[in-house]
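U., I forgot to send this yesterday:
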Amino acid sequence: MRARLHGFRWVDLDRGRGDWDSAHACELLEMEIGSRGGPGSDVFHVTVCTPSALAEQLHRHPFLIGRHWLFVPELRPDEVTAWLADRIAVLSAPTWEELAEKIGRIGAWEFEDYDD
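Result:
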């Protein structure tokens, strides 16, 4: 089973937040992904951050856990989404749950740690 990318959404940038600095940015990216040939999709989140924005975050919060963060020298949304799409396209697993866990190494899966 392979992943099918339904789309990306820059949570704050897509709201038309106005001016932002591509060299100093820390933005949440939502990825909608399902299985190829399967119905529906799930949502995954990753924070995309530049070094200067990370330094600012560390100034405010001296300890940060880096899970589900992607660090880039400059935030170029189209390049980031193309790179992520390439990474996701090569992932495979026997079941959706196992595939979603692999994708979850990149971005937080909405059902991560879900226990029914």
